[in-house]
Specification:
single chain; about 170 residues
């Protein structure tokens, strides 16, 4: 069966924006098989919702929302704890990390992020992607004021978690 113009358009857009899906899968997938399963589930959900995309927001914003909702829903269905898999270190060619203390700080931050709730991890991921509060509000469906409160609480948690990691308290 030959793909329709709509199917081709959808596939082209997904291919252009697959980095979004990969980031969400990396954040919420337990292992490589789980990440691939989640990737497929997100694409299926995107396809199901594609006809209802009205263009009132950027496609990437809409895609983040579908991807995050799918990932979080999948986790709730499976009733399991998420283990983020951050790199042990950032390769030197990607980040000019000259100081071992900075590498240790990054490890502590990654360990702290792993302790956050699913929604908090989503907020951190979007924040690290340089999304504005308005974009995060649209993606997550959380009011701007509530989002700012959550962000402040997340920062406090991360400070506490990194101190615990550094000093063993």
């Amino acid at each position: 069966m030959k793909p329709t113009a709509v199917q081709n358009e959808f596939l082209e857009i997904v291919n252009r924006n697959q980095g979004i899906i990969r980031k969400v899968c990396h954040m919420y997938g337990r292992d490589e098989v789980g990440k691939e399963d989640l990737y497929q589930e997100i694409v299926i959900q995107l396809w199901k919702a594609y006809g209802s995309f009205r263009g009132e927001s950027k496609f990437s914003t809409w895609m983040y929302r579908i991807a995050l909702n799918t990932a979080i829903s999948d986790l709730r269905k499976q009733n399991r704890r998420v283990d983020l898999q951050f790199p042990e270190f950032i390769p030197r060619e990607e980040a000019d990390v000259k100081d071992d203390a900075k590498e240790e700080q990054l490890k502590q931050m990654y360990a702290a992020i792993q302790k956050l709730s699913d929604v908090e991890k989503a907020i951190v991921m979007l924040y690290l992607e340089d999304k504005s509060y308005e974009e995060m509000e649209e993606i997550l469906g959380i009011s701007n004021g509530n989002l700012r409160v959550k962000m402040n609480r997340i920062k406090d948690k991360l400070r506490t978690f990194t101190k615990e990691e550094a000093y063993g308290t």
